[in-house]
Design goal:
With 153 residues, the chain is α+β, with helices and mostly antiparallel strands. The relative contact order is 0.19.
């Protein structure tokens, strides 16, 4: 095999990566993985537009609720209230349909149960909604003076 067979391919590859006016740093930044941002802690899970994205179907939902705790570590009780909000699943192809599951969640000492929206189809980083914590995560509560908006359903 001749070395000259690979040289044209290498030159093409290098010229394709380097366009005029584009620095190495810009190319690297453009190809850098997107860093996830933490969702709004006051609406996380409590609004359909900001659901808890557990993925893994029913197994993911069960695992999440087994880790979810009240603010003093109390175990939570939950019940499925139904589904809502059909969407096209983010599966890289956009072919599957999904729906959010609506859960009523409570723990000992909580006056009014909390309604949580859970996406069992799309995975992502999971957090504890406002007023809750995840076992082993040590989620800090939001700064004092910030209360979530109460919405009647």
């Amino acid at each position: 095999m001749s070395l000259f067979r690979f040289v044209p391919a290498a030159v093409l590859l290098l010229t394709a990566c380097a366009s005029p006016g584009t620095s190495f740093e810009e190319v690297m930044h453009r190809n850098a993985p997107i860093q996830p941002t933490r969702p709004d802690p006051l609406t996380y899970g409590t609004r359909p537009e900001n659901p808890v994205r557990v993925g893994w179907g029913d197994k993911g939902v069960m695992a999440y609720f087994k880790l979810l705790r009240g603010p003093q570590g109390q175990p939570v009780a939950w019940r499925l209230m139904g589904d809502c909000c059909e969407f096209t699943e983010v599966d890289g192809q956009g072919k599957s349909q999904g729906r959010l599951s609506i859960f009523e969640v409570t723990y000992e000492g909580l006056d009014t149960p909390v309604v949580l929206y859970v996406d069992a189809f799309t995975g992502g980083n999971v957090y504890a909604p406002w007023g809750f914590q995840l076992e082993g995560q040590g989620d800090a509560p939001p700064p004092s003076g910030t209360e979530p908006e109460i919405i009647d359903l």
